[in-house]
Amino acid sequence: MQIKALPALEDNYIWLIEKDQDIIVVDPGESDDLLKYLNTNGLNLKAVLLTHFHEDHVGGLDSLLASQKQEVAVYGPVELEERVDYVVREGDHFTINQCEYKVIKTAGHSEEHVSYLMDSHLFCGDALFSAGCGRVFTNDYQAQFETIQKIKALPDTTKIYAGHEYTLTNLAFALTVEPNNQVLMKEQKHVKDIRSKGIPSLPSTVEREKQINLFLQVRSLTEFIQLRKARDQF
Ligand SMILES: [Zn+2]
């Protein structure tokens, strides 16, 4: 099995989970490059996983489905009820291509945001980014705080496949909060280097995020709210 990042729109990633000629697509924000990729490689689209309803994560869904002759199973949270075949909720399990996916509710950025855990791979949309977390559009900071605790509780080796390439901006912000943090400085240098070569900074891991993500380091909801609001102003 291979997992690849397809850059989309300004700074989104569409995650591609491939096994032989079969493919599962996570959060198709647009479809042009995706369709080219499927056609060029003769891939058989089996399923689409959606994390939340924002257009930059679902905008390519209709044209993607319209281009396929075979059945494609679409999974997503209840906020996308009308656009999916299977509404998924916290604790649900389903199997595609002999791989089991576990659904974790990761609300806060949107009310019903979900993430998908397959073995040690977490597809988390806009719930968590490398060195940052999603904007709390719901104003439910408690929910977003709990989401972060859930992700933090996963094994250190869990890989984090987030929906956006925001790492450098997040690190720049983190360094305004902790200007002398050597770990952050080192990470910033590393990410600048790989980004200059066009390499995604993702996936990250839970272990790495514990070291570089200030949102995983806050000890209380109040501290979380302060940090997130400061990030909104950055
Ligand atoms: Zn979003």
Explained architecture:
There is one protein chain. The chain is of the alpha/beta class and 234 residues long. The protein has a single domain (2-233), classed as Ribonuclease Z/Hydroxyacylglutathione hydrolase-like (Metallo-beta-lactamase, Chain A). 35% of the residues lie in helices and 27% in strands. Helix 5 (167-177) packs antiparallel against helix 6. The N and C termini lie far apart (39 Å). 42% of the residues are buried. The mean pLDDT is 97. The structure holds zinc ion. The site of zinc ion has 4 residues, from loops.
In short:
GO terms for molecular function: hydroxyacylglutathione hydrolase activity; metal ion binding. The protein is built from nine helices and 14 strands.
Provide the fold topology.
Elements: E1 2-8, E2 12-19, E3 22-26, H1 32-40, E4 44-49, H2 55-58, H3 61-66, E5 73-76, E6 86-87, E7 93-96, E8 99-105, E9 114-118, E10 121-125, E11 128-129, E12 132-133, H4 141-152, E13 159-162, H5 167-177, H6 182-196, E14 204-205, H7 206-212, H8 214-217, H9 221-233
Beta strand count = 14
Q: Please trace the helix and strand order, writing H or E for each element.
A: EEEHEHHEEEEEEEEHEHHEHHH
The top-level CATH class is Alpha Beta
Q: Helix count, per DSSP?
A: 9
Largest sheet: 6 strands, mixed
Distance between the termini: 39 Å
Task: Identify the quaternary structure here.
Answer: single chain
What molecules are bound to this protein? zinc ion
CATH topology (fold) name: Metallo-beta-lactamase, Chain A
